[in-house]
Structures are given as structure tokens and as C-alpha cells.
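Query form — protein Argininosuccinate lyase

QUESTION: What is the three-dimensional structure of this chain?
INPUT:
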Amino acid sequence: EAGALWGGRFADGPSPELARLSKSTQFDWQLAGYDLTGSRAHARALHRAGYLDDAELGGMIAAIDELQRRVDTGEFLPAASDEDVHSALERGLIEIAGAELGGKLRAGRSRNDQIATLIRMLLRDHSAVLAGLVVDLIDALAAQAEANADAIMPGRTHLQHAQPVLLAHHLLAHCWPLVRDLERLDDWRRRADASPYGSGALAGNTLGLDAALIADELGFAAVAPNSIDATASRDVVAEFAYVTAQLGIDLSRLAEEIIIWNTREFGFVTLDDSYSTGSSIMPQKKNPDIAELARGKSGRLIGNLTGLLATLKGLPLAYNRDLQEDKEPVFDSIDTLEVLLPAFTGMVATLRFHTDRMRELAPEGYSLATDVAEWLVKQHVPFRDAHEITGNLVSFAERRGIGLEAVDDVSLAQISPHLTPEVREVLTIEGSVASRDGIAGTAPVRVAAQRALLADRVRQV
Ligand code: ARG
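ANSWER: The C-alpha cells for Argininosuccinate lyase are given below.
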């Protein structure tokens, strides 16, 4: 009977329509293990406060352990009549321990403080799983940066050729946002580190239960300080959903580049066969589906976040049933990333970069013009003039359809007396890249140092 947790005041059980709407076991059953862990801690708090004697505590823990076993083996499952994971597990406990003992466990707690605690426990575990998967991706990108340490590619702004950069520098540029996501997860963990258990329905409990004992047993650093806030707020869940959405966006940006690099027009990469897909009609096709799914799923991750935020907006204190809607979006975000990240990392780890092709295109589009202007500055030409002179040089070369390095000495001198033949020293992509040797620059020495710095930062989180 679906009214099992609150039968006393009601003449009838819930209508079938209500029961169907109200039911959450199809998604909250994954909290069962956390619920039972919480119940053991709660039983010990009840014992300490004098509501269970030694024998009862022993019997209660044994019954919870047996229920855990049945849950783990699938022997015990939520029934059609169970509203949620909490009611199902109470039914299971009573089946094992009997109504007399089993009926004592619920004293001093509410599903409201339970659920707020359990979701934190689940998210905490998955934050560690996600962090591990993100580290794997960072490692794969850093390994590609190391394997292609000398490769030079066209650096772009506005998707137009801008200045040559090291491929390694570009790949590391995708690592740093992921490092910040790791740091965000870490930071999130600190805010999620308070236990709502003991807050009851909203106002606390009257039984003198030691919430600190429960918090400690459940691995929380502290007890949440306000019982209303503890049961009514889900910003901790929304923040987690934000980090997953940001991760999705960071993957999507790289995905978009891989898709472009993989086109015939670019020809910068080849995807490994085992990380690409074919077409059912076009025999020649080899598609970057992993990257496309990453790009697509980022929309879903954003949707989960915005949906949750919309649910939370305007909710009065304290608990409202709306809060049940926090679970499916964030569970979906976790599932999405835990499936996506391993595939994405495999794709990155097995990418083959066509560094000859990148090299060939790196000087195109007059991408060394800034180097000429800065060379002129080193000859003490004011930058404003240097910019103008270089612009004239580009325009001259463009009219003739040649590169800057191919402009002859006489023409150089005609464009500006400052343009002596020595300017050609900066007209190589190697020279250009090596000269950007300030902190954070693309010079090979800097990029090597950056790789070491990255490894340090990842180890710190
Ligand atoms: N299933 C609910 C949730 O996920 C917890 C139960 C609280 N229900 C209630 N009627 N107070 O938020």
C-alpha cells in the first residue's frame, strides 16, 4: 500500500494517478546504498540517545546489513507500491527485522534531511569518478603535446590565420580549462561537506540525536548549521550540474576543432578507426561521431543545469516536493559524462596529427606580419609606423601573390628604408615561434616549462 509511511491520518491510500506521479524509485533507487549507510549511522545515534538498547542496535545493524545484501544481489527491489527509495527500504527492513524493531528506525529523521544528505554522498562519489576521467583526458592531451613537441601550426583568431603557434601550445590551451574544472570539483566538495542529517523535516529533532556523530560516520566534515537551509536548498546540486555543464562546454570546444581539423580541407588529423564511425550508404566515409556527440551532449548538460535552476527559482522555504526534480537532471549529467569522457579520451589519445600539413599552412595568410612589425620596433621604429610599413609590405606581396620572404631587397627598400634584408631572419615560422619567449608564450622553452607546470597543478588537485 503506497500510503505505508503516513497511513494513520488518511482514510484511503493514494489514488493510482497520484501514486504514478509521485513515484521516484525508477531514478532514486541508485541512492539505496547511501540510504542504508545513513540508516546505520542513524541507528547508532538512536542507540546513543537511549532509544535503542544494545540488543536492538545489534539487531538493527544486522537487519540493515542483510537488507544491503539483498539490495546488492537484486533479491530486494522496489515494489510497484513503493513511493520512493526510503519507503521501499523501510518495507525491506521491516520484512527482515519485524515491525517492532524495524519501525523504530524512523524516529527523529525525515525523508527531507535524508534525501538532502544522500544526494550529497552520491555526488561526492561521482565527483571523484569524474575527476579521474578528466585527469585521463588531460594526460592524453599532454602526451600528444609531448609527442608533437616541435610541430608548428597556424594559430587563429576569428578562425583566420593570425600567428604561428606550437601545436603543443594549442593542445595545452585545451588542458587548462579542464584543470580548472578539476579545481571546481574540488572546491565544490568543500561546500558539499556538511551533513543535513538531524535537521528532520525542517526544524531539527527533539530526540537529542548526535548529528555530529552521524556526519562524521558519513564522511562529512561538519553538520549543516541551519536545518531549514539544510533541507530546502539545492544550490550544492546546481553547482555540481554547473561544473558538469562547463566540462561539457570545454569538451565541445575541442570537439569542434577536431571536427574541423578532420575535414579534407584542413587535413590536420586522422582519427583512429576504432574511434570513428562509417556511413550506412557511403562506403568511403569515416566520421568523427565521438566529437559530434560531445558537442551535442554539451547542449544536454546545459539543459540539465538550466532546468534545475528553473525548478529552484522562487521556491519558498523549507522543503517542497519540487525538490525531487533535482535528481534526474544531475544523474543524467553524471551518466552522460561518465560514458562520454572515456570515448573522448580514447579519440584524443589515438589522434594522428599531420604536422607537415600544419607546417605548410602555418606561414600562409601573412601570419608573420606581426614579426616584421616587431622587428622594426627593435630597430627603434615607432610601432604606429612599423604597423603601417608592414601593412604596405603585405599589400605589395599580396598584389604579386608571393610570400613576405620572397620580396626582393630593392622592393623592400622602396617600401621603407627601415626594411633591410636582415628582416628575413624573422620570416621563418621557427624564428617567429621561438621569439615569443615571454611567460605564457608559444616559444618551445616556454611550452616545455608549461607542460611541467600543468603536471604539477593536476597533481595538486
Ligand atoms: N523523494 C523526495 C525527494 O526526492 C524525498 C521525500 C520527501 N517527501 C516528502 N513528502 N516530504 O525530495
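ADDITIONAL NOTE: The longest helix spans residues 111-147.
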